[in-house]
Design a protein that fits this description.
Length: about 180
């Protein structure tokens, strides 16, 4: 497998850019898709946001300074694109971000790409009650099993703050799932 430093160099060179970009997409599209899907819920929306993410990566690769891993930089772009997507939907529908997420969860049962059970729908509902940062932290830790170090780089915050957010999110989800 091509090293990240080499991949970035190829992405920034005019001669190898397109080939390197195809390799980049192949390498990261599935992980980024699931990261985005955990935020926006819908397969079609996740596909759209993923496409926008790769367009931004392609356009802005020359601005990548290498201060973080390429993976972290792309995850940050994907996260921001997914949040922007939710915010834009909320504005367009003239509802809150939480209402957009509740609508997306309601639509999951009719999404042919969703193979979840009732408990998974209930879990998604519980996650949607969390503040946005706790949602991100919970999804990244629980579904993607990212290390706090990587999450700190992606979300540009401390590992301690992320651990606290995750712990609080888990408690809130447990409370939500055990009520009734």
């Amino acid at each position: 497998m091509i090293e990240e430093v080499q991949l970035v160099a190829h992405l920034k060179s005019e001669t190898n850019k397109e080939e390197a970009f195809r390799a980049l997409v192949s390498l990261y599209k599935e992980r980024l898709y699931w990261h985005i899907r955990n935020i926006v819920k819908s397969h079609d929306d996740a596909d759209d946001v993923l496409q926008n993410t790769f367009i931004k990566v392609h356009k802005n690769i020359n601005n990548f300074k290498g201060d973080s891993k390429l993976f972290s930089w792309m995850y940050r772009i994907a996260t921001n694109e997914a949040i922007t997507f939710i915010n834009n939907n909320a504005k367009r529908l003239q509802v809150t971000n939480n209402e957009v997420q509740q609508l997306a969860i309601t639509n999951l049962t009719s999404d042919v790409y969703f193979e979840g059970s009732d408990i998974q729908i209930k879990l998604q509902e519980a996650i949607a009650t969390l503040p946005q940062k706790q949602q991100l932290v919970f999804n990244m830790k629980y579904f993607e099993d990212l290390k706090y170090k990587d999450m700190a780089e992606i979300l540009e915050t401390s590992e301690g703050a992320l651990k606290a957010s995750y712990h609080i999110a888990v408690k809130k989800i447990e409370t939500y799932l055990t009520k009734d």
